[in-house]
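Can't attach files on this board, so I'm pasting raw text. These are the components:
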Amino acid sequence: MGTMEWPLVLFTVLGETAIGIIFVLWWLDRAEVDPIFYKKAALLSGLLLALALIASLFHLGRPEYAYRAVSHLSTSWLSREILCFLFAAVAWLYFYSQVRQPKGKRRLAAGITSTFGLLGIFSSSMIYVLPRVPAWDSVQTPLFFLLTTGLLGGLTCLVLGRKTLKLSQLQELLLIVFTCVLVSILSFAIYLSMLNTAGMEGMSTVQFLLASPLFWLRVVANWLLPLILLVTYFSKQKTINANLVIMLFIACSIGELLGRALFYLSAVGISITALK
Amino acid sequence: MNKQLGFLHNSEKCVGCRGCEMACKNLYQTDISQRWRQVFQIDENAYPLPSRMFISIGCNHCSEPQCMKVCPVGAYTKRDDGIVIHDDNRCIGCRLCVMACPYGRPQFNSVINIVQKCNLCYQRVDKGEKPACVASCVAGALELVQINSSLDAKTGVLKTLPGLPSPSITNPSIRFVGPKQGKQVRRD
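---
Top answer:
Structure tokens for the assembled complex are below.
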């Protein structure tokens, strides 16, 4: 069984949220966007990205040599991840400088930053696609990481812009969130059924998940509660309630953090089973 | 790649004395948590013979080492003779190699916060000597050999044994001579 990797949980979830926010800002910027909301969201994304990068250092045995991590780009996804995130951090500085200018090229800058960020997130997920770990060795791993990006990026922008964004923009964001939740539920169901056929290690992961109270808490926070709230909202189509947005954000944030912690905890690797 | 050095382990000869483990620890004075070489006992249910059988596993210096592939700092190198060397000075302790190796051989040393593993005593091999584990084996169960097709073609040489991960993951440079079926005496 894996271990609770809190530095990695924080690094991946915060990093994905930061990149998700920038991507959503790029998406919303097709039409007019409230500048105060835009600036707040841009600043928060930078803060989260910085926190994520700092958190990642706590995973290393020798963080003082972390700079070496970009020296094996030919085969190591971890090297590629770090390089992409460093580029994203530099691009964010350019992005924020453009946000502060009244006629800055913020959409271009957001596009560049989110591209590097998304490449970083993809590389981040590919680190775990290891033949030794059936629970990670599938297309589901990149999908989970990208879904977290869309879900938490969209929800953070919803919370920040709940009073200033137009109704159509808020609805657009809710639709992104709803799609992410639905895809997350469906893909996880497929993931569990695939794992059950992935040998002894895959079945151990399934058994661990189903027996873990954390998993069931995640089911409620990440899937059931958001699904009920969103279906209720879409069926009534009234104006967007601020409480709904905040509840969604809290539930999904807890769910995603639990989900990522379980991702590391439930990893069972193929190993020597002879007696020690 | 010119050649591939590796191990040939004879379970028929191995008595499970763990002399190979001790020789490794004596030479490198490794931390108590580190077992670069480890003797395992084959589960009787997996290989139903009425006798105890052992396998001695160190780093397998695989043909396709996953540890080397995933390492972000290039701490692993594969020499022309196939030995996979881990450079402790380059390691940053990210432990990804620990996750990637199905044999559990790169091991995190929490005292010095880096990963360490067997380097096949390359200093001794370069001087024409045997690795400490091989030299210490009282039964001659562990040998340093060239892994090639002629070895694989020999009768009784196996690529894996029950209880070991599939060799398809990393193509390990270890071969086995499995325990022979003993004489069966029927008492009916």
